[in-house]
Write a structure and sequence with these properties.
Elements: H1 40-100, E1 114-117, E2 130-134, H2 141-150, E3 154-155, H3 161-167, E4 174-182, E5 187-190, E6 213-217, E7 220-224, E8 233-237, E9 239-246, E10 249-254, H4 265-276, E11 288-290, E12 296-297, E13 302-306, H5 313-322, E14 326-327, E15 346-353, E16 358-361, E17 375-376, E18 383-387, E19 390-393, E20 402-408, E21 410-412
Helix pairs in contact: 1-4
Length: 413
Amino acid sequence: MTDEIIYANLKFENCYEMDTVPEPEVPKEKGLPTSSHSWWPLVLILITICLALLMGLMTLAILFSQGSKDYRTQIRDLNITKNDLHANFSKMLQAIGSQLCLGGSKDLQNNDLNCVLCPTNWKWPGDGDMCYYHSTEQKTWQQSLWFCSSQNSTLLLVKDMAKLELVKKIPKKTFWIGLSFRADKKGWFWADNTTVTEEQKSWTNNLQLPLLCGYIYNHVIYSHVCEAVDYYVCEKPAIQLQRRNNHQQEEWFVRFFQVPKDSAEGKKLQEMREALCSEGKENNETKCALCPASWQSSGADSCFYISKQKKTWKESQEFCSSRNSTLLVLKDKAKMVSLPQDSQFYWVGLSYISERNGWYWEDGTALSREAKTWTVLYEHIFCASLYGRIIYASNSCLTKQFWICEKGAIHFA
């Protein structure tokens, strides 16, 4: 029997559901994302910024280190400068104290524990704390006021009885003072902007309008036309030094301008220079010569003391020596300009030395041929005095006469 081939049809219900079954995805090859190349520029930029910041920090560190070094150097230099200024200020004070704090006469002692310093050619009356300048030229009231102001001073203020008594000692009969009438305030005012008080009216009762400026006439205050020209008197506070002992050594310090150790000595020195160096200020001169109070300047390098009392030649010599000075040494005529031209005899530092058989000055130099043209000397007379512009041999060294001392000025650069 032959095998039968039987064909059968198989029928499946819902065969469409097979069509909805998803086919499994074929796995793709693994690798880097295709978009990763876009990050490289950003990375490079970040690296560059970091390097720049690092370089900046290193630069700042170097600059800070250099700045600190420069700052320390500046501090060190400032300390050195400060020490130098302190040393220079102390040296200047000692030089000023030893050379300028001297006595003039019994009524003008200035070599005690306190010492008054005034500008050259200003006067100190022997007490008080003010310096006075007596003009040698005449100006209007306003010009006089300006001049005094240029010297860091004011026209004379006669605000108390003591100042009124001082007026009586001023040799000039007429001179401007710091008093004027102010129309805007309808009253009389002093140059320091203070009004005339009721007490002061007792010695200013001669003021009359329309004369608007005050002046002294025969020791009395009057008013005058401001455009008139007259002499004038300026006043300003004195610099006062005080002597003290420090480890058995004398030293000077500024009494009214006390200088602590940590103060600006350079500024203090400048204040002293401004107060003391009035001469030459209008010509912008950079140096000034200082002389002791009540001494006068020769206009160069010397200071002169012209006595108000009489002594023998030897007593005069001793007086000058006690003031770190000598009797006048008159080797040339240039000095004569600053000397008195009156009818008085003044001892000078010229004497006959028997051992040397000649005339010698106080500094040990012999009388020169040039000087002999203004000297009149005789034999057997041993001391000389000045009369006018001629030096004469005196009849006796025991004769009591006025005298002139001389010493070098202190230069305030």
